[in-house]
């Protein structure tokens, strides 16, 4: 494949060659035409001389013919003279042929031109003599005077164009070719460097230090373009880096953060935002558009209507904050509108820090209250084991060790495996079938088959086992419970566990996950619980990098929302 320099040189050369050929051809034809006109002017003078004699003496007398012969003596010897009537009949012929022997000349080209245009010439072979002549004819009134020179070498040479211009063009061609090579090389280097730059830019492998452009107008333009591209490329790299940092910050932020377009379509949402939003919503859903129809987010909608899509701008900065109480959690809501009218919505669980403090403060009191003596301590652990009536002795021991001992140690020490969550929940339901039948309780499993995660089997087992046991104990006779996978992204599985029981008084919701906490002492004792079940659930969820919250359902009953990370290759979270 030819390089751009070669293509440019070839195109320039062909263009100049074509221009030269056209110019030489035009000049050659002009030179021939000029020489023909000179010869015609010479023959015209002869014809005018004959016509003047005919005008003086006429053609109807012997004297007039003799006068024509005298005039012929004044003309070149080789010149033929013919006088023709307007009807094409030959009246006089200088070669001595009889006019009636020559036939009608009306169809001769030069005669037709003279009849039509007053003058005419032609180069052709004579019909009567068979030789080639240069004919010239002119009309004078009712007569046409025709003169002719033999088209011999002398006339041919006279008619030939001068070759000086052709030789000049041939001499000029190599000079121009050298100039074209220089120009194409100058342009070609700049274009070749630009092509190399474009090819490298497509692969993201531009070596700007190796780009050298010639000092020309095109080279300067190319150098400026590559400089601007380099600045743009560097800006894009910085933007991509900042974008990655921002996304990582959003992804691992302690707050739930989501970005929405001006028409309120989700662009990005981190896992915590999804978890927190579904804690606030009436029903868990993967569609975050449900936010805009929920009464708790109406202040957000009103603020957006005032500041987005032509709303009346406010004097304050486009930032809005308020709080939402949802079950056991209280969330700080913040809306920040960007310059392109997209906006950021963040949800921060502002109860977590306070609950942590309360847990620390109450831990000693609870332990002292619940485990006053070694006997009460032993009783607490035994009750936890004994409630799992469907487990064999070995499994009870494993469960006790996994949940009470190992969960209190470093989570990194717990073994990891691939867990089929759907099958695990079905197995737990089979194990607790007797308790559900005794409570006349119906269980609905809405976790799709094949739903898996990498984690600790005992901890994940404990989550669903304790939640189901908790509903069997406290939801009441004839109620229903449901385990549902309501959302999934590339990192987390989002679950809802709910029942249709009587729920829990709102004032107790914030403390349900505390160890040894019981809503009422008498009720818990009657059911045989120790207050450890939901605490184990919470610890197991946190070990799997998840979040958990609890709320009373509007339809009645308790709902626990939690998420579990799909893959824990690096170990569980401490």
Taking the alpha carbons of the first and last residues, their distance comes to: 64 Å
Low-confidence stretches: 363-379, 521-526
Shape: rod-shaped
Q: What's the overall average pLDDT, rounded?
A: 80
Question: What is the strand content?
Answer: 15-25%
Note the total helix count.
16
DSSP E strands, number: 17
Strand order of the largest sheet: 2-1-5-4-3
The level of helicity is 40-55%
- Strand-pairing-aware structural class: alpha+beta
Provide an overview of this structure.
The protein has 574 residues and is of the alpha+beta class. It has helices at 4-57, 62-74, 109-117, 153-159, 164-203, 217-252, 271-280, 298-307, 352-370, 374-386, 393-405, 421-431, 433-438, 457-474, 521-527, 533-543; strands spanning 80-85, 90-93, 119-125, 132-140, 143-150, 256-260, 266-269, 319-326, 329-337, 343-349, 417-420, 442-446, 452-455, 480-488, 492-499, 548-552, 558-565. It has a 5-stranded antiparallel sheet with strand order 2-1-5-4-3, sandwiched between helices. The longest helix has 54 residues, at 4-57. The radius of gyration is 55 Å and the shape is rod-shaped. Residues 363-379 and 521-526 have low confidence and may be disordered.
């Amino acid at each position: 494949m030819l390089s751009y320099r070669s293509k440019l040189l070839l195109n320039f050369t062909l263009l100049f060659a074509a221009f030269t050929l056209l110019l030489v051809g035009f000049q050659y034809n002009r030179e021939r035409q000029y020489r023909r006109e000179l010869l015609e002017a010479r023959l015209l003078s002869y014809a005018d001389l004959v016509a003047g004699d005919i005008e003086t003496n006429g053609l109807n007398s012997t004297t007039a013919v003799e006068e024509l012969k005298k005039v012929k003596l004044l003309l070149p010897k080789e010149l033929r003279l013919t006088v023709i009537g307007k009807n094409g009949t030959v009246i006089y012929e200088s070669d001595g042929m009889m006019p009636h022997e020559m036939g009608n000349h009306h169809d001769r080209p030069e005669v037709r031109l003279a009849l039509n245009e007053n003058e005419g010439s032609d180069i052709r072979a004579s019909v009567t003599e068979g030789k080639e002549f240069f004919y010239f004819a002119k009309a004078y009134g009712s007569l046409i005077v025709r003169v002719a020179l033999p088209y011999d070498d002398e006339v041919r040479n006279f008619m030939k164009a001068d070759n000086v211009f052709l030789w000049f063009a041939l001499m000029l061609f190599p000079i121009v070719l050298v100039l074209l090579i220089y120009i194409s090389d100058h342009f070609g280097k700049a274009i070749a460097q630009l092509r190399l730059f474009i090819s490298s830019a497509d692969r993201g492998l531009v070596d700007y230090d190796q780009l050298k452009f010639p000092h020309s107008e095109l080279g300067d333009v190319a150098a400026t373009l590559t400089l601007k591209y380099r600045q743009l490329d560097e800006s894009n790299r910085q933007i991509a880096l900042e974008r990655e940092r921002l996304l990582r910050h959003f992804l691992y932020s302690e707050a739930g953060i989501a970005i929405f377009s001006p028409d309120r379509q989700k662009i990005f949402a981190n896992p915590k935002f999804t978890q927190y939003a579904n804690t606030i919503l009436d029903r868990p859903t993967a569609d975050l558009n449900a936010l805009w129809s929920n009464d708790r987010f109406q202040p957000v909608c009103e603020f957006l209507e005032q500041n987005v899509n032509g709303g009346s701008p406010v004097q304050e900065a486009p930032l809005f904050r308020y709080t939402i109480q949802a079950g056991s959690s209280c969330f700080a809501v913040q809306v920040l509108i960007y310059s392109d009218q997209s906006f950021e919505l963040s949800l921060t669980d502002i109860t977590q820090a306070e609950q942590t403090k309360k847990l620390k403060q109450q831990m000693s009191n609870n332990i002292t209250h619940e485990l006053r003596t070694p006997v009460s301590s032993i009783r607490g652990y035994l009750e936890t084991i004994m409630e799992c009536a469907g487990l064999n002795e070995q499994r009870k021991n494993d469960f006790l060790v996994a949940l009470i001992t190992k969960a209190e140690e470093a989570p990194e020490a717990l073994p990891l495996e691939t867990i089929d969550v759907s099958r695990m929940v079905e197995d737990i339901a089979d194990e607790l079938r007797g308790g559900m039948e005794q409570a006349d309780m119906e269980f609905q499993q809405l976790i799709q088959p094949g739903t898996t995660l990498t984690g600790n089997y005992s901890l994940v087992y404990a989550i669903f086992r304790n939640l189901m046991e908790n509903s069997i104990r406290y939801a009441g006779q004839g109620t229903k419970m449901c385990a549902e996978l309501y959302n999934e992204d590339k990192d987390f599985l989002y679950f809802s566990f709910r029942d249709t029981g009587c729920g829990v008084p709102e004032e107790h919701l914030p403390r349900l996950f505390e160890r040894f906490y019981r809503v009422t002492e008498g009720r818990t004792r009657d059911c045989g619980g120790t207050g450890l079940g939901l605490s184990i659930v919470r610890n197991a969820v946190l070990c799997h990098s998840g979040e958990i919250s609890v709320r009373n359902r509007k339809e009645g009953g308790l709902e626990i929302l939690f998420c579990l990370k799909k893959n824990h290759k690096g170990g569980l979270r401490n």
